[in-house]
Amino acid sequence: MNITLIYFDFPFWRAEVSRIALFMGGVDFNDRRIGSEEFQRVKANGYLDDGTLMPFRQCPVLVVDGISIAQTGAIARLCGKLANLYPNNNNLLAARVDQFIDFLTDLNSLISFSGKDVSEEQKLLNRKNLAAGELKRKLCILEGNISDSDPWVTGSEISIADIAIWRTMGWMVSGTVDGFPKNLLEEFPKIKRVCKSVDTHPKVLEWISLTYPRNYSRGSFE
Ligand SMILES: N[C@@H](CCC(=O)N[C@@H](CS)C(=O)NCC(=O)O)C(=O)O
Questions:
Q1: Residue 203: per-residue pLDDT
Q2: Which protein residue has the closest C-alpha to ligand 1 atom 14?
Q3: Band of the pLDDT at 184, cuts 50, 70, 90?
Q4: Ligand 1 center to 147 CA (angstroms)
Q5: DSSP, res 213
Q6: Is 23 in the same domain as 70?
Q7: Edge to edge, what strands does the sheet with 61-64 contain?
Q8: Ligand 1 centroid distance, CA of 58 (Å)
Q9: Are residues 195 and 111 in the same domain?
Q10: CB-based contacts of 213: which residues, under 8 Å, 6+ apart?
Q11: Same domain for 29 and 111
Q12: Separation of alpha carbons 36 and 176, rounded Å
């Protein structure tokens, strides 16, 4: 199987969950990172410069044996299956993983839209309100869906859901999202516990040392 994952040159969860899954599973892939100029051309015509199809003119895209697949969740599920980080033969458990990925997609949209087509000042205000209001409510709900006793969100095995939660939360508390305080997770010990477990996983640390810029702020879960 020939696999290429296309995204930008930073570890945002949309691509990072799949990159890390493939790495953890020992699945060979081409980690293709594109620049903003090429992405402008993708948005205009739907193809990379080498002719690769970008189905919805968005990133990430996974190309498997010449077939292009779009959408974060679809890509993460496929990579999770290939890497044994997503249930291959248990539909119910698979749906339990899916619900977390879809929930994170909701959170991502909430955050993105709060900064869309508004002034910097308004964006900062929107983000502050979001962090103290609707986002906090959603984090509270996420916290309530994590068990007190299981090590990972869907039980005894790590899955793409844990990796996705770690990377999304890490981004939110990294200090790079204007208006979000770094202590956003203060009241959520179970979310922090899961994030810390991923953040200290030996394969995740190996991937970080291989690919993250030195001093990259991936958030603290203390
Ligand atoms: N629903 C898509 C959204 C992906 C998305 O919004 N990606 C951003 C980059 S992080 C993008 O390509 N934005 C450009 C656009 O939507 O035109 C997914 O889940 O992958």
A1: 98
A2: 58
A3: very high
A4: 31
A5: P
A6: yes
A7: 30-34, 3-8, 61-64, 67-70
A8: 5
A9: yes
A10: none
A11: no
A12: 19
What residues does ligand 1 touch, defined as CB less than 6 Å away?
14, 43, 57-59, 71-72, 105
**Residue 62: what pLDDT?**
98
pLDDT-derived band at 21, boundaries 50, 70, 90: very high
Ligand 1 centroid to Cα of residue 59, in Å, is: 5
Give pLDDT tens digits for 66-98: 999 999 999 999 999 999 999 999 999 999 999
Q: In degrees rounded to 5, what are phi and psi of residue 155?
A: 135, -140
Residue in 57, 58, 167 to alter for ligand 1 test, most ligand atoms within 8 A of Cβ: 58
Nearest ligand 1 atom to the CA of 57 is: 17
Tell which atom from ligand 1 comes closest to the C-alpha of 59.
12
Domain extent, residue 105, equals 91-200
The CATH number linked to 195 is: 1.20.1050.10
45 with 68, same domain: the answer is yes
pTM for this predicted structure: 0.97
